[in-house]
Amino acid sequence: MRLHTLIFKLKKWIKILDNRSKMLLQSFLIEEKCRFLSNFTLKTAEVELPGEFLLPKHNHYFVRISRFMPRVDVVQKHNAAARRLYIRGHNGKIYPYLVVNDSGLADARREERVLQLLRMLNLYLGKQKFTLQLALACFAEYVFHLTRLNPDMMYLHQDSGLMNISYFKFDVDDGTGELDTTRPVPFRLTPNIIEFLSSIGVNGPLTASMIATARCFVYPNFKVLSILKPILRDEMILSRAKKPEDVTGTNQEKMTDAEQIINMVNKAVSSISNRLNSLAQFDGIDSKVGTLVAAANSNDNLCRMDPAWHPWL
């Protein structure tokens, strides 16, 4: 009974303290606590925003404190109370900062140094993410005979660093209705992309990712072929529908068209399967992917591409 009574009293006091904490001030004026910060302007001194030197930017682009906003919010989260301070930079933007009175400030400084290290590593992590996604896009463009990848088809999300490719279609020849296999470069790997990824990134993670992706598609290979056949069938039917047809065609001719579509689908699936198997094989330093990468960044092949493809980007 004593334990039950103690638990009941604790619950009662928790509710009372919660109600009392909600009755406290949610904000106050900075002038009441520190008149110097209230009167601070850019003319008083040129002071950079806290944490500006941790960002990988040039010295010309450091944001300086223009003034401190008059109101300070009281934030109570995660069993801690903090003050949210708003600072207006000289660029016009308002930056919020949390001010915490913590007795373990020494440990916080140690954690902050680790965060500084992780922030400096963000550049390499961003390159790694872009390399892996570009490898998947190049793999899909080459293996599935997709249309050429133009710069306006690539979208990079600034918040996550993810890359999205739009307007990809099967590259079907209008004359023959088959997948087009004649292209100077197998996929987009222009000099600027190589400069960003570096030669180590191209010959290392990019090549290895394409080989690993090919092996994932090959084993077990029957799943990929089963998925490709209905998709390519619809694509071939649409390609045949674009051609002018004779309305007086007989049933025999329609049967012939159906057989031609089946043959075209089987031929396209066979071509994709051959490319998958060739990329999945890896014997030492020699691989099909290495040959494709060399062909993609060859200046002789890039100069043969259509200028609308922007091979210099």
Describe the protein's architecture and organization.
This protein has 313 residues and is α+β, with helices and mostly antiparallel strands. It has 2 domains: 21-103, no CATH class; 122-309, Phosphatidylinositol 3-kinase Catalytic Subunit, Chain A, Domain 5. The chain contains 10 helices and 9 strands. The strands form 3 sheets. Strands 1, 2, 3, 4 and 5 form a 5-stranded antiparallel beta sheet that branches. Strands 6-7 form a two-stranded antiparallel sheet. Helix 5 (122-143) crosses helix 6. The longest helix has 30 residues, at 251-280. It is elongated and about 85 Å long. The model has no long low-confidence stretch (mean pLDDT 83). This is Non-specific serine/threonine protein kinase.
In short:
By secondary structure, the chain is of the alpha+beta class. The protein has helices at residues 2-23, 30-33, 35-39, 105-120, 122-143, 191-218, 221-241, 251-280, 288-296, 299-302, and strands at 27-29, 65-68, 71-77, 80-89, 94-99, 154-156, 163-165, 282-283, 286-287. It folds into 2 domains: 21-103, no CATH class; 122-309, Phosphatidylinositol 3-kinase Catalytic Subunit, Chain A, Domain 5, CATH 1.10.1070.
